[in-house]
Amino acid sequence: MTLQIVYPELRIGASPIAVEFLQQEQACSLAGSILELIVNSYGAQFEGGSNPLPHGTFAAKYDTNEAVERFSQKVIPGVYERGGGYAVIREPSGQTLMSSLKILPGEQVEERFAGMLGIAEILTAPRHQGKGLGTAILHAYLKFAAPQYEGARLMLDAFIDSPVNTWYQAMGFAYEEPSGSLELGPELALPTQYMVSQENISVSGLTKYLETKRPVLQKRRFFTKHMGPGHIK
Q: Among the four 18, 100, 217, 229, which has the fewest Cβ within 10 Å?
């Protein structure tokens, strides 16, 4: 059984945005599509700025058969085994992904984040950025897939100097200490840093903030349906 949240007034063309919460088997079958989203999203994110990286840097790491196999057989099952999960927004045609979200319990990142909800990854295809997809997929997960975290704070692991961080800061996240780096090749790494929501900002508070900024999020429809593995290749 798969839960799907549809926002009828938030549209791409004529189609309303639908956030789909994936079972592990479905997420594994979409490994290639999620990795394609990583390549395109990260590639666009670091094209400019003070330390630009070529799009091919990410493709060399993620756009390979070995990467897809590892992602589907180890990375995604590991997310679900640790109490996390994935949500996606598909293109209206159903053939590619427009956006994806990965969530982990905070204690699975570091023990000091126990009780927090960890945002591991929010990705949106470059051609669809700025259309509210990231906000919708985050709102759906906070509102409907994480009720046990309603009063909890949130944390995430962000790339240092990423332009996306201004979006997180606007939602009340503040920088903490460096957390490591994403290794992309010999002598090439992207440093990362933890961000944590301020003490007065919980999952329910952030949900209300998103609804205030985008009132169309308050209108949604719920669907549950039996689905096999995703059909996107």
A: 229
Q: CA-CA distance, 10 to 181, in Å (whole number)? A: 35
Give mean pLDDT, residues 24-28. 95
CA–CA distances in Å: residue 118 to residues 7, 46, 169, 233: 24, 23, 15, 28
**Tally of domains in the chain:** 1
User: What domain range is 46 assigned to?
Assistant: 2-225
The CATH number that applies at residue 81 is 3.40.630.30
In a domain, 230, yes or no: no
Per residue in 128-167, pLDDT tens? 999 999 999 999 999 887 788 999 999 999 998 888 999 9
Using CA atoms, how far apart are residues 211 and 230, in angstroms rounded to an integer? 29
